[in-house]
Amino acid sequence: MLFGYKTVIMNANRSIKGVHPMNLNSHLKMASKVMNLYIREQRFTERLAFLFGNIQPDIIGSFMFVPHSAQARGAAFEKRIKNCIDSIENARHGGVYTNIKLGILCHFLADFFCYAHNGGIPSSREHIGYEMAITKCLKAQSPIGAAVMLPSQRADKILENIWAAYEEYRSIPSTPERDIAYAVSLCAYLFGSADSIARESRFAGMLEPAAALS
User: Is the pTM above the cut of 0.85?
Assistant: First the structure.
């Protein structure tokens, strides 16, 4: 069920054909930092679904044929944001599915705010090396300096703030530490906005399925 997402998460450190494992580790560690930054008091009850969404674009074929850059994926990313927020507002999906969707969106945000995905590194070896440097920074457990952004209530405002941050990001030289700070900040902003919209729409159980049953 759901591509056996729990099994995938538990075996993420193993080699997957066509995918460098450090890439998966980077996204999993980034997702963990997002959860640690935003989620309080263990309110996030579908952690594995969110983690799975964060690596799905690197293990599902339909995601792997187009570069994970803002230039190549921007339009599709905007459509996914709008569809995800619309689903939350209308309570068409909940729990596992919503958190997988948010994880997929966070995966692309992490790639958009990564120097290796912005045309600055031409060779695969250098690309992998840069992502390994990001993974090393994530493992260091040092403060990431991510800005905390107040949640938005509309998909168009979410996108406006994401693209404004992207333009700012592109105007300053990149480092692995800076990439992580931007990516974590934007991913936490997206999740926070989705959570706020769910609550505002009186569907708090959307992101917290267990809470709705208590």
Answer: no
